[in-house]
Amino acid sequence: MRRKLIAGNWKMNGSFASNEALLSDLRAGLGSDVACEVLVCAPAPYLMQCADLLSDSDIAWGAQDVSVHISGAYTGEVSAAMLADCSCSYVIIGHSERRAYHGELNELVAQKTLRALASGLKPIVCVGETLEQRESGLTNAVVRAQLQAVLDVIEADALADLVVAYEPVWAIGTGKTATPQMAQEVHAVLRQQLALKNVTSAANVRILYGGSMKPDNAQELLAMPDIDGGLIGGAALKAADFLAIVRAA
Ligand code: 13P
C-alpha cells in the first residue's frame, strides 16, 4: 500500500514573516493523526527556516531544484549536498517551469536526479505535456520520454526513493484540471513504464498529480487507483486550502 504524499510547491513565493505564519497554521491544523505524508518545498533561502520550524513536526521540507554539479565554480547554484545539509528530504526536479524558462532537457533532469539520489534526497521528477502536445495526441509519448531519460540512468533499486509527478503544463496555475480519468490514464502509463524497470518496486512508487489541485477537486483525483498524492502550487500557499487537501488524502 502506497502512503499518499501531499507536497506543496511554494515556487518563488514567501518571506520569513509569511512562511512563519503559514507553517504555524499548518502545524496547528494538522493534528497528530495524519494519514498521508506532508511536505513543503520552499525556496532555498528558507530551507533552514523550515528546518527550525518543522524539525519536531510531521511536516517534511524539500527544495524546488538542485544543481547538476557536485561543487565548485558554479555561481548561483545549490548542490544536492547543501540541500542535504539543510535536512531536506525531497527535491523537485524537472518542473515544467524549469524546463520552459531555463531550458532544462530530459538528460539534464536525469543527471540532476542522480545527484539528488547520491546525496540521499528523494527526487520528485516532474513530467507533463503542453496543450499543443495533448491536442496532437502526443501526451503518452512525451511523458514516457521524460520518464525514460531518468529510468535509463538510475539503478533499479533507486525506484524505492523515486517520486514521479504528472503535471500537465496546461493545468498549472490555470484553474484547469485534468479530469480524474484523464490523469489516471497517464498515471497508469507511467506505472507500466516503471514496471519495465522493476515490477515489484514500481508498485510502490508514488505518482503525484499536479495542476490546479484544490480542496474541491482533490478528493476525486486522489481516489483514482494510481494517483498517490498531489504536488500543489497555488493552494499550498493558503493553510486552509492545503490542510483541506491533506485531509482529502
Ligand atoms: P498549481 O497548483 O498552482 O496549478 O501549480 C501546480 C504546480 O506547478 C506544482 O508544482
Task: Write structural notes for this entry.
The chain is built from eleven helices and eight strands. The chain is α/β, with parallel strands linked by helices and 249 residues long. The protein has a single domain, classed as Aldolase class I (TIM Barrel, Alpha-Beta Barrel), CATH 3.20.20.70. Strand 2, helix 2 and strand 3 form a beta-alpha-beta unit. It is globular. 1,3-dihydroxyacetonephosphate binds next to strand 8.
Blueprint of the fold:
Layout: E1 5-9, H1 16-30, E2 37-41, H2 47-54, E3 59-63, H3 80-85, E4 90-93, H4 96-101, H5 106-118, E5 122-127, H6 131-135, H7 139-153, E6 163-166, H8 180-197, H9 199-202, E7 206-210, H10 215-222, E8 229-232, H11 239-248
Parallel strand pairs: 1-2, 1-8, 2-3, 3-4, 4-5, 5-6, 6-7, 7-8
Helix pairs in contact: 1-2, 1-11, 5-7, 7-8, 10-11
The structure holds 1,3-dihydroxyacetonephosphate.
